[in-house]
Structures are given as structure tokens and as C-alpha cells.
Amino acid sequence: MTEPGGIEPELLEIIVCPRCRSDLLPHPDAERPDSLRCSDEKCGLVYPVRDGIPVLLVDEAGHEG
To answer: Which of 51, 61, 62, 65 is deepest in the core (most CB within 10 A)?
Structure first.
């Protein structure tokens, strides 16, 4: 079964935030339906997902809110 944004659950289990190394979680917000957010509230980066592939570049990430 695929998670929101077209990401396989197995991939979500192994990828982490490149900045702080915390887990990434699906971000199902209507404004950003295809993104992953860092689980560390202090970091708070949100990474885009394009064609089911997470773009884990800090320069491409935004902040939640």
C-alpha cells in the first residue's frame, strides 16, 4: 500500500531528514499534498515529493506553517 504522495511505506521507514536525522512523516495538508515533514518540531522542514520521489535537499525544503 502506498502512502500519501505516492511513497512506499518501506521507504518511509528508512529515510530521515538530511538536516537533523529525524524521521520524516507524510504531510497530508491540502496546501502541500505531496510532501514529507520532519518529525522534529525544532527543525520543522517540509520536503517536496515529486512523482512519488522525495526530494531530500535542504535547499528545496520549506518550513511548516
So the answer is: 61
